[in-house]
Amino acid sequence: MGLLSLGTPLPWEEAKKHNDHVRLHGINQFLTLYHKLKHKRTACLLWGDEVEYMVIAYDDENKNAKLSLSVFDLLKELQRDEENHSIGRYVSWRPEFGRYMLEGTPGKPYGNTMQDLLEVEPNMKLRREIAKKYMKPNEVAVTVTSFPRLGAPGVFTEPHYEPIGDASRSLFLPDEIINPHARFPTLAANIRKRRRYKVAINMPIFRDKETPKPFIDPTIPRNRNIFPEDKEAEQGAALPDHIYMDAMGFGMGCSCLQITFQACNIVDARLLYDQLATMGPIMLALTAAAPAYRGYLSDVDCRWNVIANSVDDRTPEERGFIPLKNDRFIINKSRYDSIDSYISTDERLKPEYNDIPLIYDEEICTKLMDNGIDELLARHIAHLFIRDPLVVFEELLNQDDEVSSDHFENLQSTNWQTMRFKPPPPNSDIGWRVEFRSMEVQFTDFENAAFAVFIALLTRVIMIMRSNFYIPITKVDENMRRAHKRDAVLKEKFWFRKQLFDHNDSSTSSNGVNGTTEVNGYTSHSTVVNEYTEMTINEIINGNGTEFPGLISLINNYLDLIDLDKPTRTGLNKYLDFVGKRANGTLQTAATWMREFIRSHPNYNHDSVISQEINYDLIKTIERMQKGEVAGIPNREKILGEIQV
Ligand code: GSH
What we know:
Elements: H1 12-15, H2 19-37, E1 46-59, E2 64-68, H3 71-83, E3 91-94, E4 101-106, H4 114-117, H5 120-134, E5 139-142, E6 157-158, H6 183-195, E7 201-204, H7 233-237, E8 242-245, H8 248-252, E9 257-262, H9 266-277, H10 280-286, E10 292-293, E11 296-297, H11 304-310, E12 336-337, H12 362-370, H13 375-384, H14 406-412, E13 416-417, E14 419-422, E15 433-436, H15 445-463, H16 473-483, H17 488-491, E16 493-497, E17 508-510, E18 517-519, E19 522-524, E20 532-536, H18 537-542, H19 551-561, H20 566-584, H21 590-599, H22 612-626, H23 636-640
Parallel strand pairs: 2-6, 12-13
Antiparallel strand pairs: 1-2, 1-4, 1-5, 1-9, 3-4, 7-8, 9-15, 10-11, 14-15, 16-20, 17-18, 18-19
Helix pairs in contact: 2-14, 5-15, 10-16, 12-13, 15-19, 15-20
């Protein structure tokens, strides 16, 4: 979450009058930035992780773990603390959508040394220590991807509010759960208004022995009559056999682990964007940590689709339900979704890989190309700009496009995709960056550090060893769908590239005739279909023992090359070993562990319901596990094995 602009946000009816203005100037601003900075080179590889925390307030007497809405004030304290510590790496704090959420990052980015990788976990630990200093005695920051009782009947926030807010108009969530900074409630309200309905999120219910069949959720107040939208649930928005959710907060109130990398230059950033995009679904399945919503166990393990649906502002025309009349495009995805196109200038990117028919604003694309932007990048930006700006601040409408990037950022920062390609902010020493956004946050700092380090090392394999992960982008989308399935990490297969190194790249040429491709003198009629296959995550990460080496062994090859000192190598091995064990099923995902915890709780009735007490015990157990306790934590060995956290 970047810096927040301040001002008066316009309500949707007003804001939408400025859509074209914001787009026009956004593109001008991008062009200015691009031409000023296209040759910018920076120190290679700076990077940082972002961890999203939820602050819990315990009510031990009533055995309730609630979301603490005091975080807005806590953040002020934390940011003051941050200002007082300019020495060393330290930590940095940012707000997020939920009023109970905190985002913590290292205060200064990590560099490209292997020793820096070993600073990640201690820095994450330091964040918790600092946050704790300013929290109330009954509060604690946990790293849980979806809070199981958000929007469930009863009291789930401290303090409690009734769900009667005008921004979300939710049957379940009060507006008070939203960060009060104007950007956030305006986003929620304007998404709803633009869509013309509340968002509708339906996650399949996990079917247990006693779960009613069909499952018609008794906790939906179907006859409420406060807002006109109240009747939507009954009119078909709430599907049987699903957990129905009706507000942005259900999605953007989830937590994740994101990693941002600064490449040396724009060319490398574009390559990294593409290569890491193929890893999005793999890492989503491997980090799956979100099996519960609105007081129920669901049949999915990840948050991604919940967020995608929670910010889906497409109108009925854009969703293709009625013919286009007032809107400009039928759009295949929500603003929060997987990327639709690769953008690198690398010769290994074959046109066949960009096989999603890209929806983009042709006028904008032409303008970008007329002004010196190559087609792939022009189409990427013109694709982001099919959206409307959602939050327009009155005071910021008129800007100098030579110095500001606010209008560009407006559209850029509300396209929440698996990857984000980030031009340098104006007047900064920051370079071209990419953000890796799909991972779910883990319970412990050890696990979060392990996944952050794994991805950071993979960027070395991509940039230095020039590995090639390209597969058609429709296959990456198919992988996203598979990643959501319960226990996808062990049960699903994912499309992945068979040969990760193209020896003699230059001898690979596409002659474009009848779709034939010549690879090292061998002509294939099937263009790229022979390049990829379906593999388990275990095979992708650990290899299959024969022809496919697995990503960990590539990382090990890289580490062998650079001649590391023993302690650093041992430190890194711990993380790689953990990732390998998660991939081969020796260790469980957080989603599987949570599901088992809930299902074996003495108060669980085998009906998919997560009671207040089960939730309390679950959150307490996660907190104790995170602190390093071992005794009395059910199945700790299944999720962490011998690892000391
Ligand atoms: N929590 C989210 C997830 O689990 O994927 C990611 C964070 C996120 O996208 N936050 C929204 C945002 O706009 C909050 S509305 N962040 C700032 C940005 O993307 O620039």
